[in-house]
Amino acid sequence: MQVDKRYTCDVLVIGAGVSGYCAAIQAGRLGCRTILLEKDAVLGGNAGPNLGVGITGADRYNHYGTETGLVHEIEEEAAWVQGFTQVSEGTMPYNISRRFEAVVQDYLEEAGIRVLKRHYATEPLLDEDGSIEAVLVQDLAAFRAARIDVEHVVVEASGDGEIGVLAGADFDMGSEAKSEFGERSAPEQRTSNVQGSSLVALAHRTDHEVVFMPPASTPAFTTPRAWHGRLSSLVHHHEGWFDPPANLRFLYITEAGGTKDTIRDDAEIYETLLQQLWAEWHHIKNGPHREASRCWDLLWVSPKAGKRESRRLVGDVILTQTDLESGRRFPDDIAYGGHDLDDHQPLDDTANIFGHSIPPIYGIPYRACYSRNVLNLFLAGRLISATHLAHSSTRLMRTGGAIGQAVGIAAALCCQHDCTPRDVYEKHLSELQHTLLESDGTILDRPLPAEGDLARQATVTATSERRFNDQEPGRRVPLIARAGVVLWDWAPTLEAVEMFLHNKTAEEQPLQLTVYRARREHRWKTVDEYEEHGRNDLRDEAFIALGEVSATLSAGHEGWFRIPFSETLDVGEKDAASDDDRLLVALDQNEHVEWALAQGENPLAEMVGHSHHQPTWNALEATGTLRLTPPPQLGEAVNAANGFHRRFSRGPTNMWISNAGGEMPQDLILSWSQPHTFDTITLTFDNLAKLREENPWEWGPRALPYLVSAYELACWHEGGWHTLVQEKDNYHRFCRHTFAPVTADRLRLRVLGTHGEGREARVYQIRVTHRESR
Q1: Which strand (E) or helix (H) includes residue 676?
Q2: Cβ proximity of 710 and 753 under 8 Å
Q3: Residues facing residue 181 across a β-bridge
Q4: β-sheet bridge partners, residue 132
Q5: Plot region of 686 (φ>0 → left; ψ -120 to 50 → alpha; else → beta)
Q6: Which range, of 55-59, 158-162, 755-759, averages the lowest pLDDT?
Q7: Which of 169, 518, 557, 560 satisfies CB 3.0 to 4.6 Å to 164 for a cystine?
């Protein structure tokens, strides 16, 4: 083939979906000459303006589960510039905004990435050891061929992995048999079935009636997509879709191709999907939903199909359903996932979208992110090494963004050390993981190392801080039923508990206290269990008793009442990445005793009452007064220097939180016994939403109200505070500041305001370093 143009790079990334552009940006930020190759005219892959699928991952089912790092930073930026399609609240938050793509383009340009849109990779050229030394591409716009010489590594993030496979990479396709990996949901016999593809459409309400006349070739509407094997999704299809206040909504109503080759048959699948769309919109507009949809018009249809699955390339580790459902952690974790195992199974000409389970948050190992037999080939996005069932969760794009960032760092290490991806695992894994954590990436259960961080050597204080045991009693509630407090964090042992109690009588009253912990014989949930109970299953059967103690409340007592355990109660470590893991501290019924509610909410506690008729507890949307010995940490200043830069669930919070309703400013102060020299301060503020739909990119605000918007950094020198940094318009959680070296024995972070009124200061981490000492 005649080559009309030639490029050279250290890192070639094929595919500009979320995982691909995160890999490219990260590699570029670390100094690698990087080329990002994309066959479409736009960036973003399935999340780009040609399709617009919402970017989600572990945050879909896990409180505070948002994947951090580059994917989070880019969405913060897009929310700030309002780079999202403003669909109606409560509808699927898809996004075809070109402004979002422009944000991604800006990030790529700032990282020095050469972006080649409308360039299609056609052939790898291999050296003697089978590594990819160059890739031939077609410039689809200019009708010419080009060659890209690769000096170090290739990142396959294309979704289909064509170049990887042509280079000889081992891969799989279809659904494995149960005998292959022992997965509980696998079929008895291997099949060629994959998850189907879908179109996206955009519909809007007008102020007049809109007729729809289908194309002549439109087939009859037959079977709609089913959800989780439920007949109700077929019987009540489309009900309520067009009710007010919805005025603009995305329609994700088609699926085909699960029994076909989603690579070679892609064009045929698209035409089938388009026919399905016409048939279904005809059914809506001219069938049983005619009145509800009378003024609705089909505004836009995606020009490409959203492909979920084709090939899966094979690495040194293959993730399985069993790994995900057990919440497995690997020593070489570089990302995590937590979406349901969302398996779109073929059903006639469409699909049954079947959720096999909602797993706990699980680790994704680095060894699943490079080819086991092509020496310089990385895997990203939905191409990572996983079975069909595991892929149904790992394929989610926010999870892919986290993987892509880690792969970008690993690619840079290959350039720096002139080594292969496998060599990074064998020789430079700690450097990879450390760099990832320093870049706001997340590894489950892994804090940043203390080495080199002066904040970890400091005494940390604050003008105010929230403590678990700082509770003010309020209204009293008689114990006409069993009552308790569910806890989302605790110390590993309990010595005593205290409640604010009132004995209304002139006689002693017996008390019976029981401590329970949530059962977790298996860590995953069914979709039905999740939809009924969420992350707070309050059925009796969901708990197991750890210990109980009797006490006597003296006549007329009113005040805090301490109940010690005869022996320290071992309750065990809290699973920091799960809100399914809970304690329940409960008092038996005694209508002569009143339990005082705590004034204000406690993020780590919630009061429950037991039903007289059903074996279950009910949330009361209040908090009973409860002090623990020892108490869990809630918002103490020292949390900002514990090495963790985020929370993974309701508790532990891992952050400094100033007193609720306190006046701004609020100060966090680091003090050392002797002066230290530093030139870099890294701050991590809180903007992790409990629920996915609370994120700015899901419902419209530019930033969450509790995110710090204005702050100052100052050091104490020669008897006074000297300002190092002033920031008035912050909208990112992760902020790194560098400056000329200073020497001081005190450092102050002063929080001046947040994006909402009456908010407290929330800071996950302050990290203080000196570049020369690293």
Answers
A1: strand 666-685
A2: yes
A3: none
A4: 126
A5: beta
A6: 755-759
A7: 169
CB 117 within 8 A of CB 40: yes
CA distance 621 to 291: 40
d(CA 372, CA 443): 23
Residue type, position 618, single letter: N
Q: Which residue has the tokens 């995953």?
A: 524
SS3 string, 413-442, reads HHHHHCCCHHHHHHHCHHHHHHHHHHCCCC
Q: Token digits for 657?
A: 């939180």
The CA distance from 155 to 369, in Å, is 9
Q: How far apart are CA 310 and CA 269, in angstroms?
A: 13
What type of residue is 169? A
State yes or no: pLDDT of 267 exceeds 90: yes
Q: How far is CA 182 from CA 178, 340, 596, in A?
A: 5, 19, 52
Question: Helices 18-29 & 397-417, crossing angle to 10 degrees?
Answer: 30
- Residue 79 CB partners (closer than 8 Å, separation 6+): 695, 696, 697, 701, 702, 703, 731
Distance (Å, whole) CA 697 – CA 82: 8
Instruction: Give the residue from 731, 701, 698 showing the smallest Cα distance to 95.
Output: 698
- For residue 675, the surrounding DSSP H or E stretch is strand 666-685
Cβ neighbours, 10 Å, residue 217: 9
DSSP secondary structure code for residue 48 in this structure = S
pLDDT 10s digits, 329-365? 999 999 999 999 999 999 888 888 999 999 999 999 9
Worst-scoring range by mean pLDDT, 89-93, 176-180, 684-688?
89-93
Listed residue (34, 107, 109) closest to 76, CA to CA: 107
Give the largest CA-CA distance in the chain.
Answer: 100
Encoded amino acid at 323, one letter? D
For residue 742, give the 3-state DSSP assignment: strand
For residues 308 and 397, is the Cβ–Cβ distance under 8 A?
Answer: no
Bridge partners (DSSP) listed for residue 735 = 683
Contact 709, 730 (CB under 8 A): yes
Residues in a beta bridge with 313: 171
Q: Residue 499 carries which side chain, given as an amino acid letter?
A: M
Considering the entire predicted model, what is its pTM?
0.96
Q: Phi and psi (nearest 5°) for 44?
A: 115, -15
Sign of CA dihedral 401, 404, 409, 415: negative
Q: Which of 54, 130, 64 is nearest to 91 (CA)?
A: 54
Q: Is the dihedral of CA 597, 602, 603, 604 positive or negative?
A: negative
**pLDDT bracket for residue 306 (50, 70, 90):** very high
Would you say 276 and 256 are in contact if contact means Cβ atoms under 8 Å apart? yes
Residue 436, token pair as written in the block: 């990832």
Question: Is residue 88's pLDDT more than 90?
Answer: no
Contact 669, 747 (CB under 8 A): yes
Tell me how far the alpha carbon of residue 516 is from its chain's centroid.
29
**DSSP bridge pairs for 753:** 710
Residue 109 scores a pLDDT above 90: yes
Cis (ω within 30 of 0) for the bond into 630? yes
- What would the pLDDT profile of 387-428 be if each residue is shown by its tens digit? 999 999 999 999 999 999 999 999 999 999 999 999 999 999
Q: What are phi and psi of 286, to 5 degrees?
A: -120, 10
Distance CA 525, CA 542 (A): 12
The vertex-614 CA angle with 610 and 615, nearest 5°, equals 70
Helix or strand run (H / E) with residue 768: strand 762-769
Whether 277 has a pLDDT exceeding 80, the answer reads: yes
pLDDT band at 774 (very low <50, low <70, confident <90, very high): low
